[in-house]
Amino acid sequence: MAENTFHVEVITPEKVLISDEVNSVEVPGAHGEFQILTGHTPFLTSLKIGLLTVTKGVEKILISISGGYCEVMPEKTTILAHTAETAKQIDKARAEAARKRAQSRIDNAEKDSSIDIDRAQLALLRAINRIKTKNMK
Ligand code: ATP
Question: pLDDT digits over 18-68, tens only?
């Protein structure tokens, strides 16, 4: 194992996205962004919709996640996300369509009581996050 690296797993209920030795991880914590480096104090926290950046040597992997949990343990860090896609995997057209759909639901929520505005707002945040992550590539 190279110096200053630690094991990270980025997993969702569907797949293992990353299982690797890395140098750092920048995480969208529910209470703010934070960075994990080797030797970080063990802790557990929840995550918000945002950008997760995994750095391995000179390589930076940009990942959009839609909330979940982060567990830092002495032997490994686990990011358990509801959904996670690398910038490469993001289908921008799909995210644009999801953004428009969510925005139109939000705009119509006042006159249509069947619309769940909280759900539409979360869908909008997920779509915007995917578009931003894709544009950073
Ligand atoms: P959509 O309405 O387009 O399905 P959504 O925000 O409701 O968007 P999610 O429920 O967050 O979708 O994700 C469902 C699955 O589809 C997950 O596996 C997620 O990784 C994948 N996914 C969602 N949007 C995209 C996208 N734009 N590009 C690639 N994968 C996506």
Answer: 999 999 999 999 999 999 999 989 999 999 999 999 999 999 999 999 999
Evaluate if pTM is beyond 0.90: yes
Give strand ranges (E) for the chain.
Answer: 6-11, 16-22, 24-29, 32-37, 43-56, 59-72, 77-81, 84-86
Q: Which CATH architecture has domain 92-136?
A: Up-down Bundle (1.20)
- Which of 75, 84, 77 is closest to 49 using CA atoms? 84
- Ligand 1 atom at minimum distance from 85 CA: 20
How many residues does this entry show for the chain?
137
Q: How far is the CA of 39 from the centre of ligand 1 (A)?
A: 34
Output the six-digit token pair for 36.
């994990």
Q: Looking at residue 130, what is its pLDDT? A: 98
Domain spanning 6-86: CATH 3.30.230.10: no
Q: Where in the chain is the domain with CATH 1.20.5?
A: 92-136
| Atom 1 (ligand 1) nearest CA | 98
